[in-house]
Amino acid sequence: MYHALIYATVLEMEAMMTFQHDDISRAGNTMKNAQEVCNRFRRKSPGLANRLAEPLTEVQLHAEVCYAECQLQRAALTFLQDENMVSFIKGGIKVRNSYLIYKELHALVKSRHCLKGPSHEHLQGGISFGIGAFNLTLSLFPPRILKVLEFAGFSGDKEYGLGLLREGATAKNLRSMLCALLLLCYYTFLTFILGTGEGEVTEAESLLKPFRQHYPRGAIFLFFAGRTEEIKGNIDEAVKLFEDGCKAQQAWKQFHHMCYWELMWCFTYKCAWKMAYFYADLLSQESRWSKAMYVYMKAAYLSMLPNSEARPFGEDEVELFRNVPTFKQKIAGKSPPTEKFAIRKARRYKAASPVRLPVPALEMMYMWNGFSVISKRPDLTDGIMKTLETAERALLAAPENECSVDDKCLILLLKGLCFKNQGCLQAAEECFHEVFSSQKKIRFDHYLVPNCLVELSLLYVDQGRRDEAIKLLHKAKHNYKDYSMESRTLFRIHAALAKLKADPGEEEDNL
Questions:
Q1: pLDDT tens series, the chain, 511 aa
Q2: How big is the chain by its Cα radius of gyration, in Å?
Q3: What's the pTM?
């Protein structure tokens, strides 16, 4: 069972990195075969509850947990492979069935209604991983989505999920590595991108320490170490670790693409536009994950260069922006929100005389919470502020057009974040208020207003103005719909409210 599951898991990891149809199909068939192997060892009574009439043997318990894991991974491949709604529903059913098996197994082991054998710790590790992963993932969803999921039988308790995963990561079992990797993803990506931008660096470093000692040249651990340094604002150290991660292995070139993506942002923080362009170009040539996004970023970096400066490889940003929509793709039947955003922004270049985007690289940097990274580095914040001031002067000098107010509000939002980083809180607040007061004049970039309210609320939190912050978060949550990157903004609102709720000084009912 474990040979079949692990082999299929390796193929699935490869498929998710290559994004090639043949690799996805091969992984799906191998995972289906692994599930059939697991099924041979399960008790045949219909429904797990019926199978609990008498204690399951050790082999049968392992068969259940391996079967649930196969089911979950097959669902992930279904979402990647097919774009129609029927396949999406089938994938959802697989996820639910997997969750129910994990849930019942967890209850079974807790009640000790099972036979303990020499490999019980590996069984416990499998259950901890499944239940922990589900609880942690579900806890990230905003309440309105979670209510629907709870109706379908799902529930999510973040602290409970984290506790199980930490327990699994520090134990000596087959899934301890999986638990550790999921936690590292949560600490360095999910809490950073879908949260308020802090990340959980201390926890990540603590978790990484033993793995870095055991696997000093382990590419995946070099990558997460680089990501941790990046969040801390240690950009040069992060660049070195990402470069070391690329050198550490050559078997999976696709792993390099994860490092290229982070290197692209590291050079963006430093306003090194040509270096950032270089990594965006590598991604556009080698990676299949989001060519529309990569081509957009190439164009964005070129547009940040002075008009007099030569473009690398003789490329033209206007032509690149015009090509962005041709690379649109779908995952689980939908285009990724970042691609939709890039395609919408690139439309300005369709006209014979295009209206330039003022700071497209910094706008996308904001979408990935990059201003939180530079908050630790006054020199980087100063560099970004100078770029924004140059763009602002160019905007004021240019003739007015239908995008002028949108562009002005974007620059104000980003300047507000820089002022906040510099400790000029009054100036930051004025920038955010000016964006909010211009909401009726904004023509296209309606996302600016709810995001501005979120930033203003976070500024109020830092100043101890909690009640005002909560009101603004509720206003951002309930008063604005159908804008670009809405789901990401809602995740940030949810994270901010959850953070306030966790504070003992705040009454739960207000949230």
A1: 999 999 999 999 888 887 778 888 999 999 999 999 999 999 876 555 555 556 778 888 899 999 999 998 888 887 666 555 566 667 777 888 888 888 888 887 777 655 566 788 888 889 889 888 888 887 777 666 666 556 556 667 888 889 999 999 988 888 999 899 999 999 999 888 888 877 789 999 999 999 999 999 999 999 999 999 999 999 999 999 999 999 999 988 889 999 999 999 999 999 999 999 999 999 999 998 899 999 999 999 999 999 889 899 889 999 999 999 999 887 655 678 899 999 999 999 998 889 999 999 999 999 999 999 999 999 999 999 999 999 999 999 999 999 999 999 999 999 999 999 999 999 999 999 999 999 999 999 999 999 999 999 999 999 999 999 999 999 999 999 999 999 899 989 988 998 887 665 544 444 4
A2: 24
A3: 0.90
Q: From start to end of 214-333, where are the E strands?
A: none
| Residue-by-residue DSSP string for 51-112 | HTTSPBPHHHHHHHHHHHHHHHHHHHHHHHH--SHHHHHHHHHHHHHHHHHHHHHHHHHHTT
H or E segment at 299? helix 291-304
**Which domains are seen in the chain, by residue range?**
271-357 (no CATH), 363-505 (1.25.40.10)
Q: Cα(500)–Cα(476) distance, rounded to whole angstroms?
A: 16
